[in-house]
Design goal:
This protein is of the alpha/beta class. It has helices at residues 32-39, 48-51, 69-73, 88-104, 139-146, 157-169, and strands at residues 9-12, 43-46, 61-63, 79-81, 109-112, 123-125, 133-135, 150-153.
């Protein structure tokens, strides 16, 4: 039997049932693979927005101009709350903390909350606070990807599980 440790996976805390979302709610995901990872001690939970210094509850935030997380990282876009406060620094700080946590645990796969301005994998709000989504990633997802971490949404846990199995087979 191998003594090699199982690969860790970074997971949005709200998917684990933690009430960390802007409105004080969670988005618990009941996928069997996710809870198997929890039982195996593989999950590294994170809420980049809390890590970046934002509280619960907090005003909703969006990336202005449908720009996406990569442009926020590059200083070409801002994250603003529904109360018109610039919260870009908190989002950048939270993304950096999430990356540091992932690196400290040797994480190569993450499962993050789709649609979030931090964690959105393929979708984020368009910055108008109207509920319209655009095809782009959040700030944390963009930073993790720049550092070689493969990011999946909660709708792609089977793919993430397969990726983890592939890493473990190496």
């Amino acid at each position: 039997m191998s003594t090699r440790a199982l690969d860790k996976v970074l997971v949005s805390a709200c998917l684990l049932g933690e009430r960390v979302r802007y409105n004080g709610d969670h988005k618990r995901c009941d996928d069997d693979a996710l809870w198997r990872w929890v039982d195996e001690g593989r999950v590294v939970p994170v809420c980049p927005e809390l890590a970046g210094g934002l509280g619960v509850p907090r005003p909703a935030s969006e990336i202005i101009g449908a720009a996406g997380g990569a442009k926020v990282l590059d200083g070409e876009a801002r994250v603003v709350s529904s109360e018109a406060d610039d919260v870009t620094a908190a989002f950048l700080r939270g993304a950096e903390i999430a990356l540091a946590l992932a690196q400290a645990h040797g994480v190569r796969v993450a499962v993050l909350k789709e649609g979030s301005p931090s964690c959105g994998v393929r979708l984020t709000a368009d910055g108008t606070f109207s509920g319209v989504k655009v095809d782009d990633s959040g700030v944390t997802t963009a930073l993790l990807r720049r550092h070689g971490i493969v990011v999946f949404s909660e709708h792609e846990i089977a793919l993430a599980d397969a990726a983890l199995a592939g890493l473990s087979a190496r």
